[in-house]
Amino acid sequence: MDRVTAPTLDVEVPAGDGWSGVITAGTRFRIVDLHGNQAVDTLFYDAHNHANRYSAVDTIREQGAVYLTTGSVLRSVRLDPLATIVDDTCGRHDTLGGACAQESNVVRYGEHTRHQHACRITFSRLAHQVGMTTRDLTHNVNFFMNVPVASNGDLHFADGVSAPGKHVELRAERDILILISNCPQLNNPCNGYDPTPVQLLAWAS
Amino acid sequence: MKETIPGGAAWSRIIRRGHALRLDAVADGANVSLLAYAHPQTLERLCIPDTLKAQMAVRITAPMVLMSDCGRALLSLTGSSVGWHDAITGHSTQPQVARRFGASSYQGDRNDQRLAARTGLLDELTKHGLGERDLHACVNLFTKVVPGDDDRGGLTYAPGNAHAGDWAELRAEQAVLVVLSTAPHPLDPSDRWSPSDVVATIHPVGPAAADDASRTFRAESARAIEQAERWIA
Q1: Is the pTM of this model over 0.95?
Q2: How far is B206 from chain A (nearest CA, A)?
Q3: Could you give the CA distance from residue B161 to residue A133 in angstroms, rounded to a whole number?
């Protein structure tokens, strides 16, 4: 939906860069895929207790489905709702593919990728800025990323279902800390082989 | 080492490289929710997303390698009589167990108290100086949950995936702390609390040979085992 009120947050996150911030309960938080097919790796925490963090598998089980879209409740390890997806012009988001790392790049693509920039570096830097460590990093959401799974047990990374200007919007169900890595991955189609900036917008309730 | 883990209990062991943990289901419908950490550096832990995407699967099946968040093999599922082990739906929690099976307390049920996997896993993690921050997506050995081919990837629990006598064997590719619970899977529709006992056996099998099935499964599997071998120079 279009908004008449000015957003309380309006930042552009460059390709391969990160952002973190606390979003208060009731606030709407929108991520805009400005140029299309850009994976936005995202972690959520209870802002007042970082151990009560996003849990991909608890979220999947409680909603009875693998993909995230409008209506999906993003739950913590204690099954508390952290945020709800309230608007989604993309239609499908991943939470099984995790975040790229230098080490997982070596496993997937070979030794020549060891020193490429990766989401886990961005997440670690952001975590340390707010007093957390890599111990606090967990399985994340990949907004705008397409990881189809099949009833025969297959999983693969596919071309994005997103496009320029598509967005996803969340409502914070409590005060939440959000960490975002705007994915730098160059070795698979998750960013269309061309990482691009995204826009973050928020409106207070 | 061989011992019986009662149904509904939690358990942990450190398994040396080149040794295997074999788990045998005593009754029908067993479930084992399994966590894994490098020993002694437990900051390195099982990463189901990395494991699944590197091996292009949404479930665990032999001879897949269970990879850490540091790109190294922790365990290889070298064999199993069961063709699908869940890894995407987590484990039971105490409110869910109470809703399904009714309230349970030590005073009322003594050592038949119904403990969720989460309760048991946290109790066991605490013994190793670990806790809630160290939780990660578990493998649910013997349990099958199928994602649909529909727009949402809707989940269906597959009943009868494992029977008495079914087994799974995991080889440690480095020293690994295994923490597990034998509580029922939260999507198991049975409303009768009767979790299966599981017999755990640890025995030497030697490290992965050059032609080992887990190593030759995929180039990614080989690299994860190789990275574990090369890590301590």
Answers
A1: yes
A2: 23
A3: 39
